[in-house]
C-alpha cells in the first residue's frame, strides 16, 4: 500500500504540465489535463478543488477557462502539493508495543516507557527527512527534469495540444453566434 493517494501523483503531474522547463506558465482545464494524461476527470476535479483551496492553482475565467499556477513554479514544492491533496500523513503509527512485552507481566517498568520509543524515534527522523526532501523539490525542478529527459519537441507538442484544445473550445462557444444557412435549397 502506498503512503500517498493517486491524487497526489495526478496533482504533481498536472502542475508539471502547467509550466514548461523555462518556468513559463500554461493554462488548462481539468478535462484537458485528464484527457492528456489518461486519468479520471471526476477524481481530478476533486484534486483541483484541494489545490485551489491551498492557493496552489487559480481558476481562469471565460470559455477557455481552466486553471493556472497561483504562484511561480519555483515556489510550489512537492510537499505543498502533498499537503494540499492528502494532508499531513505520518509514515508510522507507534502502537506502544514496548509496553506489552511478556517479560513485564502487564506492568512495564519506567525505563521501558521513558521518552520516545526507540523505533518511533527512527521513524520520526525518517518522516522529517522525507518531508525535507519533498520541500526541496519544486514543480519547476520537475518540469526541468522532464525537459532534460524528453526530446526537445515534446514541450512544443504539449503546448500545441493545449492551445489547440483551448482554441477549439473558443470556436465551439462562438458557434451559437453564427447564423445557420440552409444549404438544402
From TrEMBL:
Domain of life: Bacteria
GO cellular component entries: cytosol
Segments crossing the lipid bilayer: none
Example of a GO MF term: DNA-binding transcription factor activity
Pfam families: Rrf2
InterPro entries xrefs: TR_Rrf2-type_CS (IPR030489), Tscrpt_reg_Rrf2 (IPR000944), WH-like_DNA-bd_sf (IPR036388), WH_DNA-bd_sf (IPR036390)
Protein name: Transcriptional regulator
Organism: Pseudomonas alkylphenolica
Organism lineage string: Bacteria, Pseudomonadati, Pseudomonadota, Gammaproteobacteria, Pseudomonadales
Amino acid at each position: 500500500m502506498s503512503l500517498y493517494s493517486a491524487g497526489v501523483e495526478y496533482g504533481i503531474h498536472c502542475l508539471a504540465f502547467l509550466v514548461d522547463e523555462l518556468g513559463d506558465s500554461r493554462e488548462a482545464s481539468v478535462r484537458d489535463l485528464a484527457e492528456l494524461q489518461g486519468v479520471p476527470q471526476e477524481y481530478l476535479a476533486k484534486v483541483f478543488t484541494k489545490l485551489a483551496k491551498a492557493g496552489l492553482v487559480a481558476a481562469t475565467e471565460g470559455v477557455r477557462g481552466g486553471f493556472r499556477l497561483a504562484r511561480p513554479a519555483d515556489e510550489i514544492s512537492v510537499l505543498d502539493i502533498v499537503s494540499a491533496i492528502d494532508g499531513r500523513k505520518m509514515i508510522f503509527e507507534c502502537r506502544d508495543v514496548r509496553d506489552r512485552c511478556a517479560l513485564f507481566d502487564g506492568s512495564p517498568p519506567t525505563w521501558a516507557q521513558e521518552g520516545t520509543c526507540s523505533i518511533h524515534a527512527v521513524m520520526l527522523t525518517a518522516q522529517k527527512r522525507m518531508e525535507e526532501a519533498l520541500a526541496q523539490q519544486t514543480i519547476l525542478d520537475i518540469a526541468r527534469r522532464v525537459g532534460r529527459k524528453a526530446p526537445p519537441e515534446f514541450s512544443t507538442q504539449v503546448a500545441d495540444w493545449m492551445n489547440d484544445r483551448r482554441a477549439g473550445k473558443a470556436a465551439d462557444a462562438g458557434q451559437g453566434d453564427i447564423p445557420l444557412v440552409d444549404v438544402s435549397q
